[in-house]
Structure formats: structure tokens, C-alpha cells
Amino acid sequence: MKGYSHTKEEYDLLFYYAPISYLILDKDCFIINVNKAGALHLGLQKSKLIGTHFSTFLDSEVYQSQFYNFRTEIIETGKSGQLEAVIRRGDGSTFFALVDSAVIKDNQGNFKYFFLTLGDITEQKKQEQKIALALLKEKELNEMKSQFITIASHEFRTPLATILSSAELISKYSHEAEKDKREKHLRKVTTSVQRLNEILMDFMSVKEIENEIIKNNPLPFNLHAFIKDVINEVKSFNGTHNLIYKHHGNCTEAYLDTKLLKICLTNLIINSYKYAPDGGNVEITTEHYLPNTLKIIVRDYGIGIPIEDQNNIFEQFFRAKNAENIQGTGLGLSITKRLVNLMNGTIYFESEQNKGTTFTLTF
Ligand code: ADP
To answer: Is the Cβ–Cβ distance between 22 and 115 less than 8 Å?
Structure first.
């Protein structure tokens, strides 16, 4: 309106009732004024806020020192700026704030005070974190895929070459007298196909675990029957090993997801075969004394795991130095560990190079 001039009262009301948090701080960052939204944001009454140092509302020393540097820069440059920080309200709750700051100067152009606005950006930060996490997962997945291609092409080569050469030889051994040779090469074909299948199963399991498709569905089962079933399945992988099963304890019933347990135990037994290439005993022991936990132990007398590799053995794609000449993807143990954890169990091992290895699952 022409001739109308705004009164100080109007500006005071505008400041106090504005829907944005306003704070005015002195040079040392003590609060000298705050509006209604600001007091609500900080969770204290205006009278309690005035005279309080602003950094007491910053959630950690990191934010406090960031704010100190921010303040120094603003005083020095006279320019406005922004800072993201976690603010702890008077009631102890926190929120992520965007602190916007401007410098108010006196008539001579000297620093008079800070003018801060606080915006709650907690939701935005949560979304940012979600996106960052999804990106990280995607990156890991991509790395895994390329590692998979490298390993698959390497690991598939040997069994495929064996199948090819055995198939050629089988076609040549056509006489009855060559039956033994034919059978030997047929066994080689079967073992190679099993190996390929094993590699594919490993990769399928990783994918299913990654996508959280695998669920833990525990049911009561009989330990003896279960171990017998597993032993039957791994028989065909056996070279010259002697598989021994023993049970200790007063209970042979257990309550676990046998589908998942089978994957774990099969992995451990096949490893025992692979990493004891000269054969020998592989011992499976179950230990179940009620009311104690159930233990499943797989022991071999093979090449063992070098002490310097023992810390990494459960990492995806990791293979110990002494395993270079034995086929493998470095996936079995990482899958086993994740499945055992999914079943609320733990896995640990003891190993000595050239003496052997013992893996223990505890539920
Ligand atoms: P893979 O056997 O396909 O390489 P695993 O994840 O099952 O993958 O095992 C990871 C590594 O741990 C193996 O490459 C091997 O170096 C070591 N390892 C696992 N089990 C045994 C074992 N019973 N004896 C010796 N080394 C083992």
C-alpha cells in the first residue's frame, strides 16, 4: 500500500512465527535469538536456548569441529554457506539438519552476528544412504559376476577337456577286451560332469543367498538317517578315501533345516576328499548330549591350510596357496558359513599344514 511502512513489530512476528527455524548467534556461537520453529526443532523453550552455545546441539565432536571451521570460514570470508550435521534435541532425539548460514554486518561492514536456518533433511539422508548401499551392492555384484566369468571359464576347461578326451577314447575302445578301459573313461566323464554340476551349484547358491531367496525352515530330523543320506550322495565323489561316521551323546534327534545342512556338510566332505588327494580317513562325528548344543565335525588328514591363509578362508573366491593345483572356486566355505549362520549356528576350524583339517559346526 502506498505510504505504508512496515513496523518492527511486524518483522518480529514474521521472524517468530515463520515456518522455518531461525537462529541468531553471536561471534562465539552463543544463541542470542531463536524463533518458534527453531525452538521446536531443538526441543527446548526459547528462554533455555538463549545463552546456550550452538555446538552443544551438535551430535558429535566431528560435527562440532566441522561447525567451528565452518564458522571461522564464514567470519573470514563474509560469505554464506551450508553445512550438514546431526543435531541432538533437548530430549536426546536426533535429526539430520541442513544448516544454512548468513552473516549479518553492521553499518561499517563489520561482522555483527550469524543468521542460521535449520532444515530437517533426515528423510533425504536416509534415501541417499539407501541409494549408496544399493550402488555398493550392485558394484559388488558386478565384481562377483566378472570374477565368476573368470573362474567359470578356468574351472570349466579341465572337466570339459576330460569329457572330450574320454569320449574320444570310449569311441575307440570298441572291443569286449577293452571293457575296463571304457569303464574307466566313463567314470572320468561322470566325475567331470559332477564337478561341473558342483561349480554351477555353488554359483546358484551364492545368487540365492545374495537375493535372500534361501530361507531357514527348521524341522525335527534323525541325525543318523540324515548323515547316512549325505554319505550316500557324496559316495560318487570318493576316490580312495575311507569315510567313517561316529556319534557321541544321548540324543540322535535334531531340529534344523536339513536342506541347508546338507549343502554345508556336502561342501565340507567334498573339500576333505579334494584336499586329501592321497586318500586316507575322512571322519564325520556328531556330538549331541542333551541339553547341550549339537556339533557336527568333519576331519581329514590332508594338505591342511597354511597358517597365513587361515584368516581369509571364508572369504568369497579365496583359495589357499597350497590349493593351487586342486580344482576349486573358493566359494564353498563362504556359502557354508553364510548358511550355518542363517541356521543360527557357528563354524570354526583347526588346521595344520600337511597334517589335516577339522571343521566343526555348532548349533
Ligand atoms: P574351493 O574348495 O572351491 O576352492 P572353498 O570355499 O570350499 O573353495 O575353500 C576355500 C579354500 O579353503 C580352498 O581353496 C582351500 O585352500 C581351503 N580349504 C578348504 N577346505 C579345506 C580342507 N579340508 N583342507 C585344506 N584346505 C581346505
So the answer is: yes
Probe target for ligand 1 pocket from 156, 201, 305, 317, with the most ligand atoms within 8 Å of CB: 305
Beta-carbon neighbour count of residue 227 at 10 Å? Answer: 21
> Alpha helix locations (H) across 18-121?
36-42, 46-49, 61-77
Residue 256 forms beta bridges with which residues? 219
- Strand pairing report for 31-34 and 21-25: antiparallel
Provide the total of helices (H) and of strands (E) in the chain, helices listed first: 9, 12
Cβ atoms of 308 and 288 closer than 8 Å: no
Supply the residue whose CA is at minimum distance from atom 10 of ligand 1.
Answer: 330
CA dihedral sign, ordered 152, 333, 209, 199: positive
Atom of ligand 1 nearest to the CA of 276: 24
Q: What angle do CA 352, 191, 283 make, to 5 degrees?
A: 35
Tens of pLDDT, residues 123-133? 999 999 999 99
30/249 Cα distance (integer angstroms) = 70
Rounded to whole angstroms, how far apart are CA atoms 69 and 81? 12
Residue whose CA is closest, atom 16 of ligand 1? 320
**CB neighbours of 286 closer than 8 A, spacing ≥ 6?**
223, 227, 245, 246, 247, 248, 249, 252, 294, 295, 296, 297
Q: What is the pLDDT of residues 162-215, one digit of tens each?
A: 899 888 888 888 888 888 888 889 888 988 888 888 788 877 777 777 777 888
